[in-house]
Amino acid sequence: MGELRLMKGNEAIAEAAIRVGCDGYFGYPITPQSEVMEYLMAEKPYETTGMVVLQAESEVAAINMLYGGAGTGKMVMTSSSSPGISLMQEGISYLAGTQLPALIVNIVRGGPGLGTIQPSQADYFQAVKGGGHGDYYTIVYAPASVQEMADFVKLGFDAAFHYRTPVLILSDGAIGQMMEKVYLPDPIPRRTEEEVISQCPWASTGKPPTREHHIMTSLDLDPAGQERLNLLLQEKYRVIEEKEVLYEKIDCDDAEYVFVAFGLSARICQKAVHLAREQGIKVGLFRPITLFPFPKKPLQELGKKVKGMLVVEMNAGQMIEDVILSVGFQIPIKHYGRFGGIIPTPDEVFRMLKEKIIGG
Amino acid sequence: MAKIKGDIVVNIERCKGCEVCIASCPFSTISMSEEVNSKGYHFAIKVNDDCTGCSNCALVCPDGVITVYRAKVTV
Amino acid sequence: MEEKFAHPELRTPENLVYKRTDFLVDRPLSYCPGCGHGVVHRMLMEVVEDKGIGSITIGISPVGCSVLAYDFLNVDMLGAAHGRAPALATAIKRLWPNRYVFTYQGDGDLAAIGTAETIHACNRGENFTIIFINNGIYGMTGGQMAPTTLPGMRTSTCPYGRDVGIMGHPMKITELIAQLPGTYYVTRQAVHTPAAVRKTKKALRKAIDCQDLGKGIGFVEVVSNCNSGWKMTPVQANQWMEEHMFPKYPLGDIKVDGELVK
Description:
B: mainly beta, two-stranded antiparallel sheet, 2 helices, elongated
């Protein structure tokens, strides 16, 4: 276990990036995640680990800087918040289509449009259903604590390189801004150029006379070739669905009812579970940690044991679609959501569980 | 007497018959063939013996189909 | 086939004075007959060969006709999203400072959709080379108006000629970026005559050499033709270019060694 510190979630992401040997961060300021770049610029990792940190002219430029860096095998990341992530979607689609590894952090704020700077989970669909054009997915991790903000940087990069795919950390303004204690990972040195070349034999790093030139592109004008790429991607996503599912079950063993919630909502529901149990009602919490791949099977199993589920999200009902697709219609599954930056309270979601599920 | 003599070799199958080389030749040595290649393009051919191997044609050729040789020959 | 004026006896390695560089992949170019892309590709690869940097060069192709440049340039390549090549190049050069990095972009890519990336990369003084092909039209999509389309020039989206009152003025982005402190060498060249081709090669060499100095962007605009888009023969297109494009886009150095040319 590494060094213990009290940090903001956004700072934890930044510090973890330096420590796991990230090669480059490219970003554009937007509330509520600007601390990521501010922290990096203050820490000056370019003088210590050699990590490049650059404030781009836009989110569009930033994501394409990632595309360039990723295409040369470097460990690159960006962070932004909802409107900025929308701007990045074309680039994320290119990363997926070209099969390049990159880490993208979305500290979600309320929308649509310019919305608000307050926390939200309204970008669930955008994150887990592809987001940009074409048939693709990104692996999506949903941290619920500052500790997980730090931990998921390494987890994310590992998955990104293993599967050669963009990975998203879907957090929100509250977890980005809140301060908690966090055990930081021990520093790993950045890979040398030789290590990058040997670990990423597919990358465009400069063509030695001994091999063919490498081309990083998602373009294939031949429909048969483009279909082959799509089939390859789909095959990769099936493996990811098989192997990369992460979730947490709290008090589910004897539960008659469960909350299903991710990220910040899961923290609130965890408190609501305590409130319920104080009243003798057996309630549990199921928290998907990966939103893609979605924990379909464990949720399906849980659905056979409980009498009902309340899906709590800070949106109008997005993850509930995946919950119903996993569990089916045998038990009541209802949604409770708040929008626009309003964070529901534990009392509120417990009351809703009673109204919509237990009493219903 | 020594004289500069040149020769060009045209990659006929790659020539697209754009004729840019014709305008670049100071000795009007190049013209287009009557025949066409497998793509249907007329291609560059030598039509006189005045080539000095100056490489102008090869330089302006968009498809890089011309190879140029040059030597001093005694006549 | 009869080669009436052929001199096979001259075709020996010691007499070879010009051949297509092996830094071009041995396959037919996808460009239209007479298109300037092929010449610029070849000059660029000759510079890479002459400088001996083939194994440490990374190129970025745009969206447009030359999206397929990566199929022809025998160095490691990336294909950028439309207009974003300078963003890719920025990251690559900073992450691999010992690599030679270039972008190859058309007028729509560099001067319309990618204007922000172009200007900001130039303004930051990034140390890569930008090659900008300006033919005043969108070639690949079938001849639509470009930011550099001349007033009165007909394209498929200004079929009655570019009306600057409605469609705005042609953008001289090369003069614009030359004003920025982050550009070190800015020039405008052409490839329609042997002399122009030789000058373009020298310009490309100088622009790549800028990366050794680390003083900012080397930027080479090549005013070129689009005979398909202009609906002319290649030879007519080159004449039209001289008569119409060059007065608006005059050839020559615009900024040398970080100083504007008076």
